[in-house]
Amino acid sequence: MRQIHWAGWLCGLFLFSVSFQPSAAPITFNTALPVSKGEGVMRVQAKYLRATDEPGPMNRELTVKALPIVGVWGITPRWTLFGIVPLLDKTMELNMPPGRTKRGVNGLGDVTAMVRYTAYSQDQAGRTFRIAPFAGIEMPTGEDDEQDALGPLPGSLQLGSGAWNPVVGIVTTAQSLKQEWGISTSYKFNNAANGFERGDEARLDLSYHQRIWMGGPADGLPHFLYTGIESNWIWQGKNRNNGQDDPDSGGNTLYLAPTLQYVTRRTVVETALQLPVVQNLNGNALKQDFIFTFSLRLNY
Amino acid sequence: MKKSILLTAVTLLWSATLFATGTQYSLRVNGLSCPFCAYGIEKKLIRTEGVESVTFDLEKGVVMVKVREGVTLTEAQLKQLVNDAGFTLRSMSEQPL
Fold first, then answer.
1. Residue B78 belongs to what H/E stretch?
2. Record: fold of B22-96
3. How does pLDDT run across B43-57, given as a tens digit for each residue?
């Protein structure tokens, strides 16, 4: 059963990568671009993850569908508040002694609250460069004691971790009217609850977006269409179950994601397909197939 | 007939002059790099008393603000609005309409 724990970090990175970008910027991670003081941005994403690559006899198949809702509020021109509310549907199919079995759960996951401070900004005509550290906490709002007919679900299939998990990081963005670069790095300290502790997570995210079309009203704000490539390197420590390391958990994964993004003055519609190009995982961990993201952002 | 046409033309010209009164401010704003970001400035400006329209030339980094007659926006006021939106006011000019 502990092999199923590996699904936990898939879900964890999947949700954290929801990110909290307020602007026309990376899709798979956060950005340093501004949200006006006293103004808000709302972002709704639909994410779909599949992980089916397992050589073992259990033939596990993990499917995660998520609808994270992200609210962003400009407290001051430099301080920004984020809230991420994830709705989750997790399903694991696997071979067990009675036969092919499906286990899963759906509902509210762990809510994350975060603040970002734009520590450095350099603005020029039609371009900007910003550096912003951020810090936050994932709160145990998701159920962590769900059960099915087979008994309690493993920690990784629960909606929440049951623990308070802090995260810190820094993001740098350079954007002009035609191009955008982004770099973000972060570390999440996962804590134990109910005998289960998900491994800590470190991330390094890069993005490049190129504007390929501009149109819209002649005297108003134009519409931009960007295409791009994003990469996410994610290291995950081993999970711990009742104080014991799970040898079939954690490792390194590198994703590449082609992206498409349509930006207007009030909305951003975007999509990305994250493909794991390197999966150096511990033990008999389940490998990912892809993560598909479709996202809508509204300036309100 | 000719008199009616002339009178109509004069009236229209007078009306156009009347409606065009006010001031246009041209703000050179640094950091504007996408329409979604720029909307933050538009929201700030359009809520300001007396502002009738806000238009953009993103390529040049210029924001044009039209205000009605009798309304004056100060540089300090505009600088604060642009700063609150997360950008930098580089310079500004104004001209009567």
1. helix B75-84
2. Alpha-Beta Plaits (3.30.70)
3. 999 999 999 999 999
